[in-house]
Amino acid sequence: MTAATVLLWRHGQTDYNSGGRLQGQVDIPLNEIGRAQAEAAAEVLARVQPAQILSSDLTRAHATAQALAGRTGVEVGVDERLRERGFGQWEGLTHPEIAERWPEQFVEWENGRHPEGVGAETRGQTGRRIAEAVAEAAAAMDGGVLVVTSHGAAISSGITTLLGLDAEVWRGITGLGNCHWSVLRPNDGSQPAWRVAAHNVGLEGPDFTRGPGIR
């Protein structure tokens, strides 16, 4: 048994997003634009008739998921493992602020390496907990669509891990825009267990329900 489709949906915009601040696990709510994005995307995603909706416990993701729940009647489950990657002392700061205070660690981060000494979670750690939560929820389903509402860095690392790659060193999955989504499907008994059917899909793209995402 497994879900027929896993849809990974990033939350709508927050003031930290619009202000260029690193959110991490700071619990920032959606702003007015983010709430509108969630409602508009939910109207489209309701067409896929999700069998289960699972969300990060952070407010911005949970509120995004609730917009879909309100249209489908499917209750939102919560899993803390779906939180954004933790960035330790950098959370709430802009890139220029980080570069000024931690110049060496910032260069390491910009070059794809882990910044030591700031309390940040590694991409590998993030990817493993996201992949574990998604795989566990999908395995409990007998077909149907699982919608997972999470965060940009978390989703990228999670997809990488679900594809059998090391999120700490492989950075081939681009980030998602606010309220964009990616779609995974079982890989028909092959390895890795999941394949990407669509990535970073938003309302400005093709009709998701008719395109590569779902049917």
Shape: globular
Radius of gyration: 17 Å
Calculate the mean pLDDT score and round it: 93
Query: How much helix, percentage-wise, in residues?
Result: 25-40%
Count of distinct strands = 6
Structural category is alpha/beta
The CATH architecture classification of the largest domain is 3-Layer(aba) Sandwich
Number of helices: 7
- Weakly predicted, low-confidence segments: 205-215
- How many domains? The number is 2
According to CATH, the fold-level topology of the largest domain is Rossmann fold
Q: Ends: how far apart?
A: 20 Å
Strands of the widest sheet, in order across it, are 3-2-4-1-5-6
Q: Spell out the CATH superfamily of the largest domain.
A: Phosphoglycerate mutase-like
CATH C-level of the largest domain: Alpha Beta
Q: In sequence order, what are the helices and strands, one letter per element? A: EHHEHEHHHEHEE
Characterize the biggest β-sheet. Answer: 6 strands, mixed
Protein traits:
globular, six-stranded mixed sheet, disordered C terminus, 15% strand, 2 domains, 6 strands, alpha/beta, Rossmann fold, 215 residues
Task: Give me the secondary-structure topology.
Layout: E1 5-10, H1 15-18, H2 32-45, E2 52-55, H3 59-72, E3 76-78, H4 95-101, H5 103-110, H6 123-139, E4 145-150, H7 152-162, E5 181-186, E6 194-201
Parallel strand pairs: 1-4, 2-3, 2-4
Antiparallel strand pairs: 1-5, 5-6
